[in-house]
Amino acid sequence: MISIIFSRTILVFSLYLFFCFSALADTTFIGTVKTVQGKVTIQENTIEFDAKLNDKIYEGYVIETEKNGNIGLVFIDGTQLSIGPSSQVIINRYLFSPKEKSYAFDVMLNNGSAIYTSGKLGALSPESIKVQTPEATIGVRGTKFLVEVD
Questions:
Q1: Using an 8 Å Cβ cutoff, are 104 and 128 in contact?
Q2: In-domain check, residue 131
Q3: Residue 7 lies in a domain
Q4: What's the pTM?
Q5: In this structure, is residue 74 part of a structural domain?
Q6: Confidence of residue 139 (pLDDT cuts 50, 70, 90)
């Protein structure tokens, strides 16, 4: 009797771990924090934490810098995004899958400033890059630009 209960408990726990790790495996990072100065926070859903060097970046992150803060991100294709003081950026969508020829870079700059420098994504699919602001959407055709939102 005890061995049956123990076996069922092990089975249930094993299935639980399998599904938990399967869900985590589906979430792949899209970039890395390469520089951070001052106060910079990252929010994912209801969780907020201070940005640190080499943190992994994921879709859906909301990145906020205070008046003394800035952060530099490098995405997996080499695209760089430098976010200046008093800024808020939402990473809506990022996809770099050359084998499937699927690409997307969609960020929202609600306020503040950012410098964009294209990587491989800009060379392979410039039409898939969007930088949005509350007033306009920027379609990227060059390799580097600065955008400011008041």
A1: yes
A2: yes
A3: no
A4: 0.80
A5: yes
A6: confident
- The DSSP call for residue 55 is -
Reported as a single tens digit per residue, the pLDDT across 50-83 is 999 999 999 999 999 999 999 999 999 999 999 9
Question: What Cα–Cα distance (Å) separates residue 41 from each residue in 32, 44, 138, 144?
Answer: 14, 10, 25, 25
Boundaries of domain holding 54: 28-149
User: CA 113, CA 65: separation in Å to the nearest integer?
Assistant: 10
Which residues of the chain form beta strands (DSSP E)? Answer: 31-37, 40-44, 47-50, 56-57, 62-65, 70-75, 80-83, 88-97, 102-117, 129-132, 137-139, 144-149
- For the chain, how many structural domains are there in total? 1
Q: What angle do CA 21, 23, 25 make, to 5 degrees?
A: 70
CB 116 within 8 A of CB 145: yes
Structure tokens at 21: 């790790």
C-alpha angle with apex 79: 74 to 81, nearest 5 degrees? Answer: 60
The per-residue pLDDT for range 88-117, each reduced to its tens digit, is 999 999 999 999 999 999 999 999 999 999
